[in-house]
């Protein structure tokens, strides 16, 4: 078996390779057969399946593995059928089990075997498998002329169904028995016809609702927020296609576009259940976006295994889950009813997960599929091929076109390179869209904000929960009494809040624990995403200078050059660090704290990362004042917020707090130095923040 175990063979899918132009068909068929493992008669047996020998149905049985059903019609690729993964997800129209059956039958019948297959007393309409699936009519040798005449009305000269002649196909099926002739029709034929015609009906219904395209009034009521013209166009195209690739650069609102596409399908195509698969740090980002744009019920599937199973079984329209949990949750997803729309967010990261997760993702199919990514397909041609494979799971011709136009097999033939990837839009018309920032710059705000709501490690979560419990015990009696507490209690409240901020910002929570939390990992992802271009400059804000030390240590371990400017430095040191960032080409990251006496070099900054959420929302106004001097537009601003923590509460309460007291928790400004008239204002601010401390933190072990 070429060192391949049966358990691996059951889920093995061959690589997608097209036949090179220089290779003749016979050579190609030999090469394809050489790609598949050879099954040994010592381990496998071929057993006739069913009572009618003319149907050529068999089982290929392994002595310990799962048997596979096969259906034989001929000796050419695509004519036969098997239920294994190699056949179902491959493009060659054959598999190890089919090749084993053909080999055994050739040994039994010799050269007469192909003729035996053609002696069927019935005609057949079946799905011919390959890079493009075709519905073919295969007449029996003794088929009546009247049946053949009816067949010519709905099948072309190559025997392929003409989709626009379905009424004639119905006549053929209806009248064939009157001529005492049997026509067998494979069930997959009806599924394929339904899939192809449903798209036509879906297009008709959607275009009727949006008759004026992107200018239709229906868009004004589609979501609670407005959509740009390019978002409307992408959402409309995705909804019509049903299965769509949306490759959109950061800041162009691909998640909002995906939500709009789902809403169009819900209103016009009976969409009932959407499953969004994403990275851990984007779970709450999706929830935040959904709450802003739609009133449909949304659940974040997170927590223990029993809790996730309960959430999958719920009636939420949108369910947001992690790739990391997918392998464990696969059976729960199937048990609760597979979603009729899947959204793969940050699809370029799927390959980073284990092989089992990727395999199960392929097995989970849905009527509608939307694949989102911010990557350039030119840089990920291999993964992009897998995305086209998923979009064209019915093999309607998209995958075949992609292989023929963009895959160029090497002389080795088992390897391949990709060409003309900049012409994908022509190849995948109506199924693919690539949006770039430079194209829609005039439609974008000066600062594009990205919110990442992150989990805590187990130790961070335990410390934050303990501090929160102490804080509520100190705060609650005075809130219930509607009185401002004495200065000693206010100082205790301030101290507990300060420690909670530390716990939420990747500070080591114990002396024995020096490993950072999840913010460092997300920071590295953002840097990797944006620093590919040599001109990109990144500014990282952390309110407390000690947090810069954590970031600096991680950058040094990753061997990334940086400059640091914080208020612990002298003026001379600050000027030297800023000069390094401005003048050295390899130094493209500046770590800075708030409240510096020197002006920041924001003239060439493309990306800003807010590591923490200051207590005082005025701090953000100061940071944005720095950015307002930059001529570069747009600037991408990332907010790293630990979900369910005090800084998350400050984020939610930012618009409700009117700061009128000169207090900054982290800059060693004690509430004890405030005037008595300001104690009440501080207590009111604490009250507003704690009222927004309602979500539980997400706890995930640090990686």
Overview of the structural elements:
The chain contains 25 helices and 22 strands. With 703 residues, it is an alpha/beta fold. Strands 10-11-9-12-13-8-16 form a 7-stranded parallel beta sheet, sandwiched between helices. A 6-stranded parallel beta sheet has the order 17-22-21-18-20-19, sandwiched between helices. The protein has a 4-stranded antiparallel beta sheet with strand order 1-2-3-4, with helices on one face. β12, α14 (355-363) and β13 (368-373) form a beta-alpha-beta unit. It is elongated and about 105 Å long.
Q: Roughly what is the average pLDDT, rounded to an integer?
A: 88
How many beta-strand elements? 22
Shape, please? elongated
Rounded to the nearest angstrom, the radius of gyration is 31 Å
Q: For the report, how would you describe the main beta sheet?
A: 7 strands, parallel
Strand content: 5-15%
| Measured distance between first and last alpha carbons | 38 Å
Number of helices: 25
Low-confidence stretches at least 5 residues in length (pLDDT < 50)? Answer: 509-513
Quick summary of this structure?
By secondary structure, this protein is an alpha/beta fold. Helix content is 41%, strand content 14%.
Give keywords.
single chain, 703 residues, 14% strand, 6-stranded parallel beta sheet
Question: SSE layout and pairings?
Answer:
Layout: H1 6-9, H2 25-35, E1 44-48, E2 57-62, E3 68-71, E4 81-82, H3 85-89, H4 96-109, H5 113-117, E5 123-128, E6 134-138, H6 145-152, H7 166-175, E7 183-185, H8 187-209, H9 229-241, E8 243-248, H10 254-268, E9 274-278, H11 283-293, E10 298-300, H12 305-312, E11 318-322, H13 323-335, E12 341-344, H14 355-363, E13 368-373, H15 381-391, H16 398-406, E14 407-409, E15 416-418, H17 424-427, E16 432-435, E17 447-454, H18 458-480, H19 487-504, H20 518-530, E18 538-541, H21 545-557, E19 563-565, H22 571-583, E20 589-592, E21 607-610, H23 618-627, E22 635-642, H24 646-653, H25 676-691
Parallel strand pairs: 5-7, 8-13, 8-16, 9-11, 9-12, 10-11, 12-13, 17-22, 18-20, 18-21, 19-20, 21-22
Antiparallel strand pairs: 1-2, 2-3, 3-4, 5-6, 14-15
